[in-house]
Write a structure and sequence with these properties.
The chain is α/β, with parallel strands linked by helices. The protein has 2 domains: 115 residues, 3-Layer(aba) Sandwich (Rossmann fold); 175 residues, Dihydrodipicolinate Reductase, domain 2 (2-Layer Sandwich). The protein has 12 helices and 15 strands.
């Protein structure tokens, strides 16, 4: 297979995962450069994965003429600047979710991408998970009849740091946690017309300091009249719990699992099994599938399944839901 020289921008927790995948499980990739605003982090990543070049700024990486494509896993607030710079320098881009925290920035990114004509693929790895992809195939095949109701659930096993939870960093709980559920809802059911969100600080009183929430429920009406619900929680203390379900006129399809290992322990005290620890274990294969898809699209000049319009649509719904949470009212997505 022809190898693509890839540059990775952002070498934090997720970026380091990507570096490992690109180095070991993505045969079409040659990880040729990494960049991070924290020099030691970029240097450590380069040394660990035998990457020949490392930079302390995205501009220098985007200027590297040896690179065929750029993968963006940096902090979300920096995505617009990085993607615009890469596009203006003619670099194909893969950008992690969410594409940005601000709709105006997202629309500017689209404008620059369209003007320059570069290839852009939006990251939503759940579409590349075997279970979520299989559910989509069953829905499209008519196995459950006409879809009527969507339900998505995302529960993290613990809360992030308060610094991360500040809205200027995370975008708020809905944008931070529900963006994947929103994308799957659109993929399964169609576009969202309206949304109503309620939430509160129910598990971690200290979150009040950063004016965020720890539990939210969203109710959606789709353009085709179908219904949906998404619940997100930061206190799924038993494990990383990610699920989706579609109720149709002829049946139901469910995707997701909690058990990490196919084993039950049965004693007098009861029946137990383990749980998925966190997202690297649950979606590691999906991240790899997504990266392989990105490079396959580049090599064979194929249109990506997930475009910048999908990134903007998810962000638009998340922004509407966040506003609904603050206003305590139903809002129309088209108003955002």
């Amino acid at each position: 297979m022809k190898k693509i020289n890839v540059g990775l921008i952002g070498t934090g927790r997720l970026g380091s995962m990507y570096a490992e995948f690109l180095s070991t499980r993505v045969p079409g990739a040659n990880l040729a450069a990494v960049a991070d605003l924290i020099p030691e982090r970029a240097k450590t990543c380069a040394e660990k994965f035998d990457v020949p070049n490392w930079y302390t700024g995205h501009q220098d990486l985007n200027d590297d003429l040896s690179l065929d494509a750029v993968i963006v896993t940096a902090t979300t607030v920096n995505h617009r600047e990085i993607v615009v710079d890469a596009a203006e320098k003619g670099k194909p881009v893969f950008c992690e979710k969410p594409m940005t925290l601000d709709l105006a920035d997202a629309r500017e990114m689209k404008s620059v991408i369209e003007k320059t004509g570069i290839f852009y693929q939006q990251g939503y790895m759940r579409r590349f998970d075997k279970a979520f992809a299989a559910a989509k195939r069953e829905i499209d095949a008519g196995t459950i009849g006409t879809p009527c109701v969507f339900r998505g659930s995302s529960r993290d096993p613990y809360r992030p740091s308060l610094e991360y939870l500040t809205p200027e960093n995370s975008g708020g709980q809905i944008l931070d946690m529900a963006i994947h559920d929103i994308d799957i809802a659109r993929w399964y059911m169609g576009e969202v017309r309206s949304v109503y969100a309620v939430g509160g600080i129910l598990a971690y009183p200290e979150i009040a300091e950063v004016h965020d929430t720890d539990n939210v429920i969203m109710v959606m009406t789709f353009e085709n009249g179908r219904l949906g619900e998404i619940d997100i929680s930061r206190n799924g203390v038993y494990g990383y719990d990610i699920r989706a379900e579609v109720l149709g006129t002829e049946g139901t399809v469910q995707a997701g699992y909690l058990r990490d290992t196919a084993i039950n322990i049965m004693t007098k005290a009861g029946v137990t099994h383990d749980v998925v620890p966190y997202f690297p274990e649950r979606f590691g294969d999906a991240y790899v599938n997504q990266l392989n898809d990105f490079l396959e699209n580049l090599i064979h000049d194929k249109e990506p399944m997930i475009t910048i319009d999908d990134g903007i649509a998810g962000l638009q719904i998340a922004a509407a839901a966040t506003d609904s949470l603050h206003r305590n009212s139903i809002v129309l997505v088209a108003d955002y």
